[in-house]
């Protein structure tokens, strides 16, 4: 009975803060996934999908008192930070990378970030396609009036992900240490030993025999 009570106390303390942080990370990952889907950015879509699964695993580990799941989440956090650093380098064209390349779309399409055409203040200029009779289609010409270039929006997105990932890593390490200390303390006092829970103080066998052979 000690362990569930301990869990309730922890959910109200630092572990509860870690749980809320994981929920916030889940919402941030879902928001980013939506815009990557709109821009057909397949590599980020796959990375975000895996990230969402690991965050769910971290939530489960926090709620169900599973330190190993939280350790997996902490390890993934390091990978996630590395991935977002790569995204920043990609859009800032560091180390020979080009934001106009098709690397993030696996060379399947020429789509760019959704923010390239739908950023704050952006106005799309389109014109009818020439040389194709009978088709009411349009050809994309240019985007003007953007208050902020799309690559900087993507950089801010990744920087924010790195920030909350670092905070999540610190909290994950702290929660694992709390869980480990609680397990050690329960082991010391016999909290996890099933013997005290099911032990029944039986009467000595000699007393049983005495009760059996008492004269009527």
Q: Describe the strand arrangement of the main beta sheet, using strand numbers.
A: 1-2
Low-confidence stretches: 1-11, 132-137, 187-205, 207-214
Number of strands: 2
Average pLDDT confidence is 78
Largest sheet: 2 strands, antiparallel
The topology string of helices and strands comes to: HHHHHEEHHH
Overall outline? elongated
Q: How big a fraction of the residues is strand?
A: 5-15%
Helix content: 55-70%
Q: How many DSSP H or I helices?
A: 8
Class inferred from helices and paired strands: mainly alpha
- What is the CA–CA distance across the termini? 45 Å
Transmembrane segments: 42-63, 70-94, 160-179
Protein name: Sodium/potassium-transporting ATPase subunit beta-1-interacting protein
Pfam families: NKAIN
Membrane topology: Multi-pass membrane protein
Question: Can you walk me through this structure?
Answer:
This protein has 216 residues and is mainly alpha-helical. The chain has a domain at 2-109 and 152-193. 64% of the residues lie in helices and 6% in strands. The protein has helices at residues 2-11, 14-38, 42-63, 67-91, 115-118, 150-189, 194-198, 205-212, and strands spanning 123-128, 138-144. It has a two-stranded antiparallel ribbon. The longest helix has 40 residues, at 150-189. It is elongated, with a radius of gyration of 29 Å.
A few lines on this structure:
Belongs to the NKAIN family. With 216 residues, this protein is mainly alpha-helical.
Keywords:
216 residues, mainly alpha, elongated, disordered N terminus
């Amino acid at each position: 009975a000690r362990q569930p009570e301990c869990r309730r106390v922890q959910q109200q303390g630092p572990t509860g803060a870690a749980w809320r942080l994981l929920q916030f990370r889940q919402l941030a990952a879902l928001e980013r996934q939506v815009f990557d889907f709109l821009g057909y950015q397949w590599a980020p879509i796959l990375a975000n999908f895996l990230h969402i699964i690991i965050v769910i695993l971290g939530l489960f580990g926090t709620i169900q008192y599973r330190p190993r799941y939280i350790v997996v989440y902490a390890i993934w956090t390091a990978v996630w930070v590395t991935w977002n650093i790569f995204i920043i380098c990609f859009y800032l064209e560091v180390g020979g990378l080009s934001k106009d390349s098709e690397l993030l779309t696996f060379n399947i399409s020429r789509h760019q970030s959704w923010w390239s055409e739908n950023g704050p203040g952006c106005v799309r200029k389109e014109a009818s396609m020439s040389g194709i009779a009978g088709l009411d289609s349009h050809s994309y010409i240019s985007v003007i009036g953007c208050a902020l270039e799309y690559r900087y929006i993507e950089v801010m997105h990744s920087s924010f992900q790195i920030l909350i990932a670092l905070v999540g890593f610190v909290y994950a390490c702290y929660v694992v240490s709390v869980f480990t200390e609680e397990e050690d303390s329960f082991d010391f006092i016999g909290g996890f030993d099933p013997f005290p829970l099911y032990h029944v103080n039986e009467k000595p066998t000699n007393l049983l025999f005495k009760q059996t052979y008492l004269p009527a």
